[in-house]
């Protein structure tokens, strides 16, 4: 690989001459198998069999045997072969390492798998069999190149999953430069640009991809086009442009609460903008926008819309972890709602969800009971099943929690249902994690991909912190550290102090398991400071179980039989 050469005690000696390189390559291709003299002659001098050519072959064999040293190139009536193990040849070593790292038995979402992939990539020595043209070498060259590409793609996928966008971008930039036709790598590079906050580079990146494919005469794949539409589309800028035209100063006074009323256009757009800002972690901007809208509609006597806006503000506070203030706003919204024909059941469900996150499970049950059975609009039913799942999960009814989360997911996938699927995906992952089902890691990966593609930084922070807990439960503290750090960074950046506290706590637990007590103490204190900032109870640590999940299931079976419902953290995502 890179250069045909022989190493003696670490000292490289180049193999001189095309014929010598071809002969050595042929014997390597047929390692430990006897190669007849006729086959060697046909490979090196096609169609030239004669006594003179046979003599030339013997000369080449003698020269190569001298370079290899005694006892390496063996001869017999059956022909010639090398007495070497496969690990003596760099191409064989790379192929073995690559196939092992890419094997189905390697665990997904695990830091050790990434290290195995990186170790395989490091064994790549360059172009296989350079300047050698033999029957059989072309196929092996193609296989090795394909393995090298797949190894680097997989490494990039792991880096993206672990929130290491810079490492992924560096790897993918080189890969896409070498292979511009590799659309999967191009899609991954776009995701890396987005994850590292380089959205302004996306249009140029897509133009570059399209030019490369056009030069090769290849049409963009549906996946690439979908990614382009998803990542380049910037709804925030569209809304701000529309507002600059229809209501630049926010002075347009709505005539009614009806969203179809043209005078409501500015309010509708500002509320949508608040949700986009919230998803991007810009909570103070979102909250300020909603507060101004609530004040406007309160002055106009639009009580039903005020209740809805207060509910929106609760959603922002739930992300920052300010749950006590969220409850107070819900109370105010409920009082408004009692005087209207609005969303009483929805407010009860939201109250139940907030109380669940505060571990006030009995009150959460009462609030959900007050909402009644799941009925009405499909979006409300989805929210009801989400809440039911979370209450079940935190009270130890794990299988019921999985059923509830999957019910919400199936309903959200129906046509014309306006539901936020990101948190539902996370609910499924957490429920499966707590029931001991390793399929949870596939769901976590889906959540992270969804969150990064839609620039949902709070959701990504929560997913990383939650996945760190799963890695701890499966006995993989090294991988838990990677996810904890990614979650902590995203949570700090987006001001999600509850998620920051959880990520820091998971990081401390993982470091304790790795024996780094000083760093663990620092991160545990950091977690407590985040929890105090939002007046949130400090969770208990996670205890890891065996990698096969049997210890986890045994522990949860014991919890299922318990009547206690106030375990501080065992069911939190």
TrEMBL record:
RNA-binding as UniProt keyword: no
Domain (Bacterial transcriptional activator) ranges: 89-232
Keywords carried by this UniProt record: DNA-binding, Transcription, Transcription regulation
Coiled coil: none
Renumbered residue ranges of the record's region Disordered: 531-573
GO MF entries: DNA binding
Domain OmpR/PhoB-type: 12-82
SMART domains in the cross-refs: BTAD, Trans_reg_C
Pfam families registered for this protein in UniProt: BTAD (PF03704)
Keyword DNA-binding: yes
InterPro entries according to UniProt: AfsR-DnrI-RedD_regulator, BTAD, OmpR/PhoB-type_DNA-bd, Sig_transdc_resp-reg_C-effctor, TPR-like_helical_dom_sf, WH-like_DNA-bd_sf
Domain of life: Bacteria
GO terms of biological process kind: phosphorelay signal transduction system; regulation of DNA-templated transcription
Family listed: Belongs to the AfsR/DnrI/RedD regulatory family.
Protein name: Transcriptional regulator, SARP family
Organism in which the protein naturally occurs: Brevibacterium linens
């Amino acid at each position: 690989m890179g250069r045909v050469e022989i190493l003696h005690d670490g000292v490289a000696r180049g193999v001189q001459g095309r014929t010598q390189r071809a002969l050595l390559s042929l014997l390597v291709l047929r390692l430990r198998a006897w190669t007849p003299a006729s086959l060697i002659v046909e490979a090196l001098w096609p169609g030239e069999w004669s006594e003179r050519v046979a003599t030339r072959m013997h000369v080449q064999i003698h020269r190569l045997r001298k370079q290899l040293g005694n006892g390496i190139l063996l001869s017999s009536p059956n022909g010639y072969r090398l007495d070497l193990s496969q690990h003596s040849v760099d191409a064989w070593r790379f192929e073995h390492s690559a196939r092992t790292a890419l094997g189905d038995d390697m665990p997904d979402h695990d830091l050790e798998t990434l290290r195995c992939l990186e170790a395989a990539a490091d064994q790549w020595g360059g172009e296989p069999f350079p300047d050698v043209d033999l029957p059989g070498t072309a196929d092996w060259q193609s296989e090795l190149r394909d393995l090298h590409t797949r190894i680097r793609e997989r490494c990039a996928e792991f880096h993206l999953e672990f929130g290491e966008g810079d490492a992924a971008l560096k790897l993918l930039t080189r890969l896409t430069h070498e292979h511009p036709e590799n659309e999967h790598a191009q899609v991954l590079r776009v995701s890396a640009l987005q994850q590292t906050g380089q959205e302004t580079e996306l249009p140029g990146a897509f133009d570059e991809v399209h030019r490369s494919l056009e030069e090769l005469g290849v049409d963009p794949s549906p996946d690439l086009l979908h990614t382009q539409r998803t990542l380049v589309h910037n709804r925030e800028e569209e809304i701000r442009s529309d507002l600059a035209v229809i209501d630049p100063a926010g002075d347009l006074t709505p005539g009614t609460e009806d969203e179809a009323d043209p005078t409501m256009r500015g309010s509708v757009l500002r509320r949508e903008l608040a949700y986009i800002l919230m998803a991007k972690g810009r909570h103070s901007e979102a909250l300020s926008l909603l507060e101004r809208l609530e004040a406007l509609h309160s002055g106009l006597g639009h009580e039903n819309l005020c209740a809805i806006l207060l509910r929106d503000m609760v959603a922002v506070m739930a992300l920052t972890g300010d749950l006590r203030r969220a409850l107070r706003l819900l109370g105010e919204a409920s009082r408004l709602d009692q005087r209207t024909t609005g969303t009483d059941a929805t407010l009860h469900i939201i109250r139940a969800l907030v109380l669940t996150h505060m571990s006030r499970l009995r009150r959460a049950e009462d609030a959900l009971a007050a909402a009644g059975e799941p009925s009405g609009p499909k979006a409300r039913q989805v929210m009801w099943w989400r809440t039911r799942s979370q209450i079940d999960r935190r009270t130890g009814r794990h299988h019921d929690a999985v059923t509830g989360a999957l019910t919400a997911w199936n309903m959200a996938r129906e046509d014309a249902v306006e539901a936020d699927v990101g948190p539902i995906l996370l609910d499924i992952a957490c429920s499966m994690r707590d029931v001991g089902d390793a399929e949870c890691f596939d769901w976590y990966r889906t959540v992270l991909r969804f969150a990064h593609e839609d620039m949902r930084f709070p959701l990504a922070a929560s997913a990383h912190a939650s996945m760190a807990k799963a890695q701890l439960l499966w006995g993989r503290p090294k991988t838990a550290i990677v996810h904890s750090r990614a979650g902590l960074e995203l949570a700090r950046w987006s001001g999600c102090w509850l998620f920051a506290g959880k990520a820091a706590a998971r990081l401390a637990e993982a470091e304790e398991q790795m024996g780094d007590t000083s760093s663990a103490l620092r991160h545990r204190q950091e977690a407590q400071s985040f929890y105090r900032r939002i007046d949130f109870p400090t969770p208990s640590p996670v205890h890891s179980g065996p990698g096969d999940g049997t210890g986890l299931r045994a522990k949860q079976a014991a919890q299922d039989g318990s009547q206690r419902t106030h375990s501080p953290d065992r069911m939190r995502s």
